[in-house]
Amino acid sequence: MKITFILPHAGLSGGIKVVAIYAELLTKRGHIVNVFSVPRRPISFKQKLKLFFKNGKLHNHTRKEQSYFDNRQVNHTVINSYRDITDKDVPNADIVIATFWNTAYWVNNLSFSKGEKVYFIQGKEADFPNLPHEMVEQTYSFPLSKITISKSLKNWIEKYDNNNKIFVIKNSVDTKQFHAEFRNKQDVPSIGFMYSNSWIKGPDLIADTLKIVHNIFNNLKIYSYGLSDIDKQIFQGLNIEHVTQPEQDKIRYIYEKCDVWLCGSRMEGFHLPPLEAMACRCPVVSTAVGGPLDIIQNGINGFIVPIDDQKQLADSVVKVLSLPNTNWLEMSNQAHRTAHSYTWDDATELLEKFLLDLIPSN
Questions:
Q1: 321 vs 220, 231, 324, 331, CA distance in Å?
Q2: 160, 187, 253, 257 - which has most CB atoms within 10 Å?
Q3: pLDDT digits (tens, 9 = 90+) for 225-258
Q4: What pTM, to 2 d.p., does this model score?
């Protein structure tokens, strides 16, 4: 097959990472895969001033960014400017795949020679506070075959499009990158989380939860990583060992330091860090969002709690941290088994079959 993926800016979001993995694995299966993305949107003078007053330095728009396409065997082209991707940018193909709401508009407008049109939906974009709600909603009615990544996201999309079948292919985890040797609980209670300053990721909820847990375990060790430096004001009073933009092959060392991984998100399509943590033998306590809802069994490999409930989050974290080592090992091994039971090759095989079935037979 000739397959084209159309991306927005190929930054360090989980959705971009998933596309990069699929593009590489489909390439290794012998398909001709091309990925096209746009540069980062230029920031306005007003935004530059805001960043200057916040950080005390000028924004460096020429700094090379990390990308999930770095060092992958994928043909990735960043077009010359921030604009819509059109027919002149992409080759004829069998399949063309939109990967974000604005790319759905671009793909919907492409000629049929560019391939059978697919919409890969990885998040509740119509509910994102910074996106144009009505324009995003409209994309769900486009005549594009739809794939998504979790049962909860499928149910959500059906609110907008209940006329067409929505195919679910769950995400997996790269167990060559995320793994850990058999280990016991840490000598000192330890917890980790992925930091983002986005309200959707629940930094305030995580901070409140950690403060409750810290009152019970005053020697608590806290680890985190994220794309930006941590907001010390929100996490005031907590001693956190934070790494900003760690190298991808170093993240597993953060997971394996932890007795429990915490997710406080308010909305996710399929949040990958909990599954990555589980691959590193770390039980997970998470809000009821896409990804964790599909993989966590209460009391077996972690706990699921209602969104925005820091008391239940804290109670569940305390349960895990209070387990005797033997019981913690049981939960740790179950988490590891969950992450290793379904591979990216399994997911790619499902995607490959779905795409092949879309191509008209001659």
A1: 10, 25, 8, 11
A2: 257
A3: 998 999 999 999 999 999 999 998 899 999 999 9
A4: 0.82
